[in-house]
Design brief:
The protein has about 550 residues and is α/β, with parallel strands linked by helices. The chain has twelve helices and 25 strands. Bound molecules: adenosine-5'-triphosphate and magnesium ion.
Length: about 550
Amino acid sequence: MSSSPGNFIHDIIDADLASGKHTEVVTRFPPEPNGYLHIGHAKAICLDFGTALKYSGRCHLRFDDTNPTAEDTEYVEAIENDVRWLGFDWGKNLFWASDYFDRMYECAVELIKLGKAYVCDLSVDAFKEYRGVPNLPGKEPAGRKRSVEENLDLFERMKKGEFADGTYVLRAKIDMASPNLHMRDPAIYRIKHASHHNTGDKWCIYPMYDFAHCLEDSIEGVTHSLCTLEFEVHRPLYDWILETLGLYQPHQYEFARLNLTYTIMSKRKLLELVKEKLVNGWDDPRMPTICGMRRRGYTPEAIRAFCTEIGITKTESLTDVALLEHHVRNDLNEIAPRRMAVLDPLKVVITGYPEGQTEEFELPNHPNKPEMGVRTVPFSREIYIEREDFMEEPAKKFFRLAPGTEVRLRGAYLVTCTNVVKDAGGSITELHCSYDPASKGGNAPDGRKVKGTIHWVSAQHGIQAEVRLYDRLFTSENPAAEEGDFKDYLNPDSLKVITGIIEPGLAAAKAGEKFQFERIGYFCADLDTSAGKPVFNRTAGLRESSAKQA
Ligand code: ATP
Ligand code: MG
């Protein structure tokens, strides 16, 4: 696989390697297993793993499992699966923050002994009040004056489980007047009487994310710790902790997170959608999760190409989701075999065609990739065409079927509409067409010009399929920035389920198989598909929709 292209982080790495500051490159992707990965994580994964690949270094997959109440092994498996599916491999480098809990505890004790940490009994509210606001110094809590001995004793008793959740925290003793709130004696250990998926009931105190994170990077010898911009203000704390403890200090570099239009990118909000059943699970094809996109029919190649194109910068921005869809289309156009399916069927009777006769036509799987082969499609006297491919009173430049006009049925015959059959209410129920038996394969025998070509499915042979049509999950370009609840901006029409008629060969499609339904779009057999009841997801339209784009 190709590695990622250059960016400001790679310029720094080039300089570090040239100066001898580093001789190898070690990065890590550090998800917290409290939800499924989304397309924003894909950006981080492509950068972390792509950088390691580019410099023949290594990238650790490290689970930041410091909060036992939010985490679940279901998420762990899903994350591993998604990273692999995206095309990356951590080899033997799978790590867990929880593997370092003993070391982290020792580091906390060390800070206490250095007089750089203390046990504090402020309530959550008081904690916030004492911390104050950036332009005014905070207040020093009484605990700050506790002796080292007393702190050691209290911290040990916290560990032994003598105190209830929330009664005490261990805080780093830094500077209650710092303009950076993260430096105002942040909590580094808290009491949480909860079983951990890895360490069971061994601990009832757990390290806070900020304390744990820099230690994890240091312990693992990470050279370039890459994370999103919101952690820039945490960097002085990380540096303080490692420096105070005299530990190896990886350098952290921050880049802008990915934000996409018509999407939200917070695990907490995505979890809300799942829990409140506003979507059908984490892998609902409308979700911006990796597993949702996989189910929708997106390919890892398309997601990686998108991540390459957006690049790595330090400027926050909102990326048009149409760009992601563009890469999906680009990839599927190359690899998706062509098939015929009719989503809004209108019956056509080819009046001159012998009743009971069936012909098999050979159609190419790809218009300009003969190596993708051909398939046979049955043709008979009655077929379905797309209702919108007929106009009784054709508009200008409408080259499809209309009374008296001739069109090509893709790969079959030229037909001319001779009669329009309607019901009592005036709705069209079927069309009658004549056909030119000499036009077999869809070619005019005399070279006469037939502009329109439409797709079709034999009525006798076609198979009914459930087709799930997706639209954007939100009506707002930036739902997270809207006033009020982001869920107020859910698109009520984001899923439409219809019954289409597919060419018979498609009924055997296996879950995950991708196709272009000719003239309609890209579709993927859903996980729910079965030979008896085929189900397809619309992955993307053939071209960018005309709806307003950002
Ligand atoms: P969220 O903010 O969506 O809840 P998170 O940051 O809490 O996600 P983590 O599991 O902590 O999720 O993230 C793992 C890594 O992925 C972090 O290094 C984080 O910086 C990165 N990451 C998360 N969201 C994005 C994003 N939208 N764009 C780029 N990187 C991201
Ligand atoms: Mg996080």
